[in-house]
Amino acid sequence: MGRIKGEWMEIRLPDNLIGAPMSIISRVLPLPPKMISKLLQTKGCLLQGPNLRLHLFPRENRDFPSDWMELNILYEDEFTLIVNKPAGIEVHPSEKGQRKTLAHAVAAYYEMSGQDVRIRHVHRIDKDTTGPVLYAKNEFAHYQYDKAMREKTIERIYVALAEGYVEGNKGKIDKPIGQDRHHSTRRRVSDTGDPAVTHFEVMERLADHSLVRLRLETGRTHQIRVHLSSINHPLAGDGMYGGSRGVISRQALHGERLIWNHPWTGEKQQVTAPLPDDFNQALNKLRGH
């Protein structure tokens, strides 16, 4: 990777590329042609002898007002921010004028740390689900992460507390998911829905509950909640999909790990988010039975 100096990345070209036209140099960069063309048009791509300078980190207007909240940051570099989202807060406003979402808290963090960066979340998790949320800190990173989401190379691994005794140690739920006609925010298994695949393994069996680890192959709204409910093992605490609130007052679903490739170097990276207190308390209650 090159050196980052303010808004610019400086790359020292290998000997065989010094003096080569930009059309040749661009082939070895991880930038999409559209972005190279934009950089060339805006003088954001400068060749100075053996050095190539790219204007990848322009100052931007933050696009959300700031609402201060203590954030648990799992990872940060010039391209990426990963925040461990607590329960009870939405990633992004769901209606006009809504405040105190994670987007507003990230805006406050950028402001406090002197970063003039737009808020670009790459994926969402439900309001009452906890775990890592990935943010791209510039246009290039956003392009790379969107592409990775489409190509399913960003891995999201969850831990859930399901009701009942889940049969078998491993399995796959492959059932399409669509909107529930009778309830605007609910989803359901439907033949005409979008393809949805969830892989699971049982980690521990507890008092009439199973602790399962899940890997999403697709990312449909409420996918894990709908899929587990469809095999008669709703999440503990998930009243919307048939779970009871006996051991926990929200759906017991936590994003445990996020695995991704660095947008510039392609190097594999990962973060792990610890289980939140209420989830641990539910487990301890069940282990004590």
Automatic annotation (TrEMBL):
UniProt feature, compositional bias: Basic and acidic residues: 173-182
Record's protein name: Pseudouridine synthase
Species in which this protein is naturally found: Cohnella herbarum
PANTHER family: MITOCHONDRIAL RNA PSEUDOURIDINE SYNTHASE, PSEUDOURIDINE SYNTHASE
InterPro entries documented for this protein: PsdUridine_synth_cat_dom_sf, PsdUridine_synth_RluC/D, PsdUridine_synth_RsuA/RluA, RluA_PseudoU_synthase
Record: active site: D126
EC category name: isomerase
Catalytic activity: a uridine in RNA = a pseudouridine in RNA
Lineage of the organism: Bacteria, Bacillati, Bacillota, Bacilli, Bacillales
GO molecular function: catalytic activity, acting on RNA; pseudouridine synthase activity; RNA binding
Any one biological process term the GO annotation gives: enzyme-directed rRNA pseudouridine synthesis
Annotated EC: 5.4.99.-
Keywords: Isomerase
Function: Responsible for synthesis of pseudouridine from uracil.
NCBIfam families the UniProt entry points to: rluA_subfam (TIGR00005)
Organism domain of life: Bacteria
